[in-house]
Each structure stands twice: as C-alpha cells, then as structure tokens.
Amino acid sequence: MHIDHNLKVPLYHQLKEELKKRIHGGEYKNGDMLPSEKELMERHDLSSTTIRRALNDLVHEKYLERKAGKGTFVKMQKVTRNLKRIIGFTNNMLEMGLQPSTRVLSLRELPANIFALERLGLKKGAIVFELKRLRLANDIPMMLETRYIRKDLCPDLDSHALNSSLWHVFETAYNLKPTRHIQGMRVSTVSGEPAKLLNVDDGTNIFLIRGVTFTYDNLPVECEESLYRADKYDLTFEAELE
User: Global pTM?
Assistant: First the structure.
C-alpha cells in the first residue's frame, strides 16, 4: 500500500482509495478483519485522526463495519434484486448507489443451440447473435451473462455499442420495447474461465438464471444464461396466498 506524503491529495483520501483497491482486488475479502488503527499508523506514518476519517468514510460507503471490541471488518453490501420486477442490470446497480459497467467479451453469429431454439421459438438452423458480457459494479465482477438475440429482429446488432443496456438498444434501434421477462433460477457452481472472470475460486456457488425477454405481441427477442455471484446478490420474490 503506497501513501505519498508529498502529494496534495489528502492522506485520508489516499488511504481510503488504497483500501478500496485492495477490497476490489480481492486481497481483503468479505469478512476479513483489517489491520488495527495502530498498525496502520505505524506502517504508513499516519495520525489516528487520518486513519479514523478514512475508515469512517468506508463504513459510511458500506465497504466496512465495526464490531465493538473486535475490530473493523470488510462487509460489502449485497445487491438486492427482486425477481418479480423487470429491471436491467444498469438500473439495478444505480438503484443500489453503485456504478455499473460492462465488458463485452465476444459477439458472434451462429446457429441457435437447443436452449435458444426452444426459448425463442425458432426453427432449426436459425441464426442468432451470441453475446457474452461481464457486468461489474464499482469495478467488481457481479455477473457473467450469455445472451442469444434473434438476428431476424436485430439484423445489425454488431453495429451498436453493447457495453451498456441491451434493452435500451432494442427499444431505440429496433422499436422493440421489453414488456415481459420470464426467468428461472437455481444454485450451481462455477469453475475454469468463468470463475476467473468472476474473480471467485473454482467450485464457488453461484446463481444460474435462465430467462426470456418478450416485447409487444408476446414476441420473444432474446434469451439469457447468466451467472450471478451468490456472495454479491440477494435475490428475492413475492408470493401471494391463494
């Protein structure tokens, strides 16, 4: 951790940002105890006032929590998503006070697989776009998605920016406003390249969500298979008694 006493940037802010980097990078994981204030003072030649201000800011920003008589611990707030609501990743993160971003991993045209054929009601041999994206909040990987989009409805999808809301592209470029989304969820595990992208260990439990998006006239436009980090999400739904 590098704190530069010669910079004009306040020392408390430097310390806060350095701690956030270590949390985002996985060096300090959820539940880990931070070094004591005394240790931080000695390591970085900082005053107790500077240390407390940095830690107080991180507690206020939901990165840390203090436990009386024990110390200061990493406690990242989980994202709440109500499965009953139609809400895109971008808006969901903004509602939680987080900064969303998207990394497009690949986009290619291919014949629809069985999953896409069944959910999109296509005939064998139909061509779809396969879009793979990593979705992040405050630069932390949250969800890895694979989406299959009908090429007959979105013929030049590859000419559009796909690093934000795909539903916005549907509506503005193709006049296909999403009106309904059906999804199912189960607990699974992740390993290999998907685990690396999500920054979790092989064998980590995740939420696997499969869904279909419909527009007007009950028209299916896309389907998805998304891997949600179970340590970052609380998935909820409502049920009514009959």
Answer: 0.69
